[in-house]
Each structure stands twice: as C-alpha cells, then as structure tokens.
Fold this protein.
Amino acid sequence: MGPCALIDFAALRHNLQQARNAAPHSRVIAVIKADAYGHGMLRAARALASADAFAVARVEEGVMLRRAGVETPLLVLGGFFDFAELRSAAEYRLQLAIHRIGQLERLEQARMPQPVECWLKIDSGMHRLGFPITMATDVFRRLEKCRAVASPVRLMTHLANADDLEDSSSLRQLESFLPLAGELGAEISIANSAGTLGWPDARGDWIRPGIMLYGSSPFLNGRAKDHELKPVMTLQSRLMAVNHYPKGAPVGYGGTWHCPEAMPVGVVAIGYGDGYPRHAPTGTPVLVNGRRAPLVGRVSMDMIGVDLRSQPQAQVGDPVVLWGRGLPAEEIAEAADTISYQLFCGIGSRVTFVEQDN
Ligand SMILES: *Cc1c(COP(=O)(O)O)cnc(C)c1O
C-alpha cells in the first residue's frame, strides 16, 4: 500500500479540550473548512461533535454537512453570493457572515420562508472582508430590522497578525473593535487559534479555532507541544528501495545533490503528487523506523530520496513518517518555506486515510 494519513480522533478531541481550557468562558466554533484542513470534514465533524458550532468557508460546504446529517449550528465564514445561496442557507439553517453591502441589500429584498442567523463581519484592520467600523452601527441596525434575519445579530472580526505575539497590530484591532461590541451589546467572536492561545482580550463570547484542533501551533516558529496540542494527522509511507551509490553520484532530478561518500540512499514512496511539498530542501527530516534521516535531492511526484547513513540496516518496506507523531508538521513547513495549514490542505487524493481512536 502507498502512503497513509493516520487521523487520530483522540488527539482531535484532546485539542478541542485545549481550546476550551484556553478560553473557559467562550463557546467554541470549530473551524472545519477546506475538508477540515485536509483531515476530512465529516470525519472531523464526528470527532468534534461536542463543539458548540462549526465553521466552514462556503455555503456548499455547509450544505454538504447538513445533507450528511450534521445537526450542529454551522457558520459560513464567507457569507453568500446570490439569492440561490441565501435560499440554501435558510433551507439548511446555515448562519451567515455578512461582510458587504450587497449581501445586506439582498437580505432586505429577500422574501424567505424562514429567517437566517447572521454575523456582522467588521473589518477592524485586516482589510480582507468586512464593513469598516464607521459603518458598523448603521448596518447592524439594518440587519436587526430585516425580516429575513433571525435575532440576535452577532458581531465578528478577524485578526491579521495574531500569530506574531510581538506585533501590536492585534492590540490596535482589539482597541477599535471591542468598544463597538460594547455599544451594540452583541455577542462577539474575534479569535482564531492564535487569538485563542495568545491574546486574552480576543476570546470574547465565541472562539473560532482551526489549526490548533489539528494539533499544530498557530504561532510563528511555534510548536504544538508548547500548547500541549497533539498532532492529528501522521503522514506515513514506506521505503520502496535502498540503493548503494559511490562517492560523487548525483541523486534525483537535476542531480542537485551528490553522495559525499559511498553510501546507502533510501527511496520513499511519497512525493508532491501526494501533497509532500516539492520545495522541501535537502536536509528536511523524515523518520525512518522512528529515527530522523535527512531528505536528499529534489522531491519527485511519487518519491523522495533519504540519506540512510545513520541506518545502514534499513530495508524495503520499513515505515517512514513524513510529519505527525514524532515529527512536527511545523518543522517540515518551515523547511519548505510554508505553513502547516498548507501541508495539511494539500494532501492528495492518492493518500489513504486511516482513522484511529486511541
Ligand atoms: C480559517 C479561519 C479561522 C481559523 O483560523 P486558524 O488560524 O486555523 O485557527 C478563524 N476565523 C476565520 C474567519 C477563518 O477564515
């Protein structure tokens, strides 16, 4: 069998509990968009059934969850595009983030059998989605009056730099958002994982953790164990060849790496066709039989090379971990100049998922 992604349900539940411990007075909207960051949306919804709500990015993700029988409150972070999506949201009881005037106008024009729950999304400084603070009171009142909108209307915003604890722009965002929330007397949601763990004033009524549930640190250069998070996905494959080459032999496409001495080079059945990052450089660690060995040469579509000098006894079929238990995804992401979010989301359809519940 080729590569597997082992998904640890107990770790998911543990990480949800860590989010609750970090924000004991907040309710939890577990973010399971993008196929639960590549872990499988329905699988994650099952393991995280005790969350107070789930969040997805798009209406179709919410519809998919409802059709699969998920009854938990569901928030669509991107809101809706058109009347058809608005009708689906009402039909499937999806909560909507309302972030632009066109959505408000459609809600005001809509004649719907049942109202939808709405979150007014405020741009407190990220400048991605949301109404400026100056418009917030007016839009909030219009939403409250709207027959298509169920009460209560809630408020949300998103922090742009919460992953950097040295960056004061999170404090400036909070300073502009929190007084507004006080004036309107609405329930609020601000914090993603980094906000939940790193910015106490961002916790509010509802937290929106994503990456921490999957057992990865949300912070720059952070590690899961700093926050007692457990990795959920372990990406695993096997050695498919062990070759012996002389000193100076080039290895892989472009011959970018040469054996510094006569040595064994392992070939692992994993590549960018499975979601392993093509930019992982020589030296990126993998675990062969539970012990670290460095990747050598370029990542191919289906294979990578590893330096087996530290494990001359390694054989074809031996297990290799690419990230997960014993090898933080954060470390691989840093080596490949990306973030663990992207590694998880990029897992290819060729990878077999195996659910575990220890
Ligand atoms: C994806 C997302 C989150 C979760 O972010 P993490 O960094 O994964 O915790 C929270 N809020 C919004 C609006 C998002 O888009």
